[in-house]
């Protein structure tokens, strides 16, 4: 029996500034699946996440999120947008940032004693659980500026998880991390996906750190999208058809994939706003 669809797009079209970013997109991500969103600069990877959040018009097609129209189930989504790092002088502790994800409307305001004290205890317990889930308990009381890039990323993932979301969307979480931290964060995300039965969408430009962990990829190019297992989608013929130019996919001796010939290769790193 197939898992229920957490995210479903049917003939969806996204436009920015009057220009179609992609159109005719059909895709399904199910509960407990780990999917990577790949593509060159400007292909619409971040736009896909914003469409799922209901922030981008997708007519004439449809976007369904947990059975509701896009935007209607946002409280069930943990979202980690692109970031450029934290100021080293920022005084906020990791545990404070995670708590902000739980009750940002009252963060920094002392909660009253009395009947609400039980709610405070529950909140502290949930923050503790989220930090344990990502393996960040040991350094959660340190300020963000004191943490390494990998430690900061774990804190941010804990913040996205603290409300127990059913969907987790991560926009380039591996960017600027070294290879060991890329592998560690990807393995962590897969473990959360399985243990919590969360549907995961992770935007990346390099598929290689993700290869051992993915269920499927969503590859955006030429205003269209391909979805399926890595071995079915990242092939010369499939990508040649998608880009409209000759593409070659090579596999190195260590198992890494190298895509040759497209306008901008997905293994080039850096922040993009697409």
Describe this structure in words.
The protein is 28% helix and 25% strand. It has 274 residues and is an alpha/beta fold. The chain has a domain at 5-94 and 160-260: 3-Layer(aba) Sandwich (Rossmann fold). The strands form 3 sheets. Strands 6-7-8-3-9-10 form a 6-stranded mixed beta sheet, with helices on both faces. Residues 105-114 and 265-273 have low confidence and may be disordered.
Name the CATH homologous superfamily of the domain at 5-94 and 160-260: P-loop containing nucleotide triphosphate hydrolases
CATH class call of the domain at 5-94 and 160-260:
Alpha Beta
How many beta-strand runs?
Answer: 12
Unreliable parts: 105-114, 265-273
Figure out the total of helices. 7
Classification by helices and strands: alpha/beta
Distance between the termini: 36 Å
Secondary-structure element sequence? EEEHEEEHHHEHEEEHHEE
> How large is the radius of gyration?
19 Å
CATH architecture heading of the domain at 5-94 and 160-260 = 3-Layer(aba) Sandwich
Q: How are the strands of the largest sheet arranged?
A: 6-7-8-3-9-10
Q: Remind me, CATH topology of the domain at 5-94 and 160-260? A: Rossmann fold
Give a short account of the largest sheet.
6 strands, mixed
Helical amount among residues, as a percent range? 25-40%
Q: Name the beta content range.
A: 25-35%
Overall geometric form: globular
Mean pLDDT: 87
